[in-house]
């Protein structure tokens, strides 16, 4: 299994625990990307703190903050993963999501004839390059584990046989429903930040990589919106390693110096993040966790801008433009008793919380097969013009 970022690792944890504890499976874990970067929290420590052995670390260049730097990083990663798979060939590569690190690992594996199981394919996020990476990974993969029925249908629409597409629900929902949250007092002690004296919200804002150089302007608007709520504390988790991420993180670090009601951290870790969501007033930003996990925890979300455009949205989510006034108005709306009631009764679109169990059954069936033929035929749908 390959993991390249804190968010994706947090989603993979339940499956990783099952794989590690299964006596019939040998788990080999590869950490890459921002896990290995101190600028993005050195989150490989979270993996090891969970008791996992990182069998291989694959460094890729993350020095720059532009799209050309992303392309160079992806190219370097393909070379490194090609060398890795040449010497340590798995029976099955398991990947999640849509990031360029996962795209690079999948490209190297596919060319070398290694079967790939892809989790959370079929989604749509029109505001990011991840949308294209995700669909490319789908076409390189043999087993597909989408998080909802609509995503399963899109994978079939891309020509993948329904016999290899399994709607298992989103791993993030399983995390929310299975991880026992910390007490709020223990969480406060670990954070070293007041979350009991007044309400707090969680803020995560990533670059919109299908737009050019909008990160600085959009974060400035978000900062202005947050300043309208001095009666609220904010836990701000930094951006990922995409183009524009360092710009966003620099702004958060600078602004945190003059905002005593802000806590800015590179990463909370899975347990602290889920616990913090449980007690938060709302989730603000453009992270997928506000789309998938927040409704499962009955928390309202303010979805800013177009990064998540195309995703299935629950009634507890308000989408708004990346403008200070629009964000502030959305924050006021979700704070109302009427909207809180909607959030408490919202329907979750992304599964029943048994995702890792469903994936394990399909993976074990594949590995147990006598003839694992991974040649694919294009599955045509009848289309009338």
Task: Tell me about this structure.
By secondary structure, the chain is an alpha/beta fold. The protein folds into 2 domains: 2-170 and 351-368, Rossmann fold (3-Layer(aba) Sandwich), CATH 3.40.50.2000; 177-344, Glycogen Phosphorylase B (Rossmann fold, 3-Layer(aba) Sandwich). It has helices spanning 6-21, 44-49, 67-87, 100-111, 130-140, 149-157, 171-178, 184-191, 215-226, 245-256, 270-279, 293-296, 324-334, 337-344, 355-368, and strands spanning 2-3, 30-32, 56-58, 93-96, 116-119, 143-145, 200-204, 233-237, 262-265, 283-285, 301-304, 317-320. The strands form 3 sheets. A 6-stranded parallel β-sheet has the order 9-8-7-10-11-12, with helices on both faces. It has a 3-stranded parallel β-sheet with strand order 1-2-3. It is globular and about 60 Å long. The model has no long low-confidence stretch (mean pLDDT 93).
Task: Give a quick summary of the entry.
This protein is of the alpha/beta class. The protein has 15 helices and twelve strands.
What's the helix and strand layout?
Blueprint: E1 2-3, H1 6-21, E2 30-32, H2 44-49, E3 56-58, H3 67-87, E4 93-96, H4 100-111, E5 116-119, H5 130-140, E6 143-145, H6 149-157, H7 171-178, H8 184-191, E7 200-204, H9 215-226, E8 233-237, H10 245-256, E9 262-265, H11 270-279, E10 283-285, H12 293-296, E11 301-304, E12 317-320, H13 324-334, H14 337-344, H15 355-368
Parallel strand pairs: 1-2, 2-3, 4-5, 5-6, 7-8, 7-10, 8-9, 10-11, 11-12
Helix pairs in contact: 1-7, 1-15, 3-4, 4-5, 9-10, 9-13
């Amino acid at each position: 299994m390959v993991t390249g970022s804190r968010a994706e690792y947090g989603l993979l944890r339940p499956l990783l625990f099952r794989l590690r504890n299964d006596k019939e499976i040998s788990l080999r874990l590869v950490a890459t990307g921002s896990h290995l970067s101190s600028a993005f929290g050195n989150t490989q420590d979270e993996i090891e703190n969970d008791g996992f052995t990182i069998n291989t670390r694959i460094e890729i260049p993350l020095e720059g903050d532009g799209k050309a730097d992303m392309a160079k990083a992806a190219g370097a990663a393909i070379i490194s993963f090609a060398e890795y798979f040449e010497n340590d060939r798995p029976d099955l590569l398991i990947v999640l999501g849509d990031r360029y690190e996962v795209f690079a690992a999948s490209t190297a594996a596919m060319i070398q004839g290694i079967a790939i199981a892809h989790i959370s394919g079929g989604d749509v996020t029109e505001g990011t390059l991840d949308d294209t990476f995700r669909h490319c990974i789908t076409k390189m993969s043999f087993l597909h584990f989408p998080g909802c029925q609509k995503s399963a249908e899109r994978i079939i629409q891309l020509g993948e046989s329904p016999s290899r597409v399994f709607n298992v629900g989103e791993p993030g929902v399983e995390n929310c429903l299975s991880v026992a949250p910390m007490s709020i007092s223990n969480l406060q002690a670990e954070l070293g930040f007041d979350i009991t004296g007044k309400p707090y919200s969680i803020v995560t804002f990533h670059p919109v990589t299908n737009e050019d150089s909008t990160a600085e302007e959009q974060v400035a608007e978000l900062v202005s919106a947050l300043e309208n709520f001095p009666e609220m504390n904010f836990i701000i988790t930094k951006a990922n390693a995409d183009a524009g991420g360092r710009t966003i993180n620099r702004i958060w670090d600078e602004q945190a110096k003059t905002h005593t009601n802000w806590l800015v951290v590179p990463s909370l870790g899975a347990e602290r993040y889920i616990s913090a969501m449980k007690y938060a007033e709302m989730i603000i930003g453009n992270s997928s966790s506000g789309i998938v996990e927040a409704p499962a925890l009955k928390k309202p979300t303010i979805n800013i801008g177009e990064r998540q455009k195309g995703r299935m949205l629950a009634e507890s989510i308000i989408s708004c433009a990346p403008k200070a006034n629009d964000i502030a108005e959305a924050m006021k709306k979700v704070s109302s008793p009427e909207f809180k009631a909607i959030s408490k009764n919202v329907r979750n679109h992304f599964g029943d919380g048994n995702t890792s169990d469903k994936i394990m059954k399909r993976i074990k069936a594949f590995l147990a097969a006598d003839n694992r033929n991974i040649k694919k035929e294009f599955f045509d749908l009848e289309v009338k013009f």
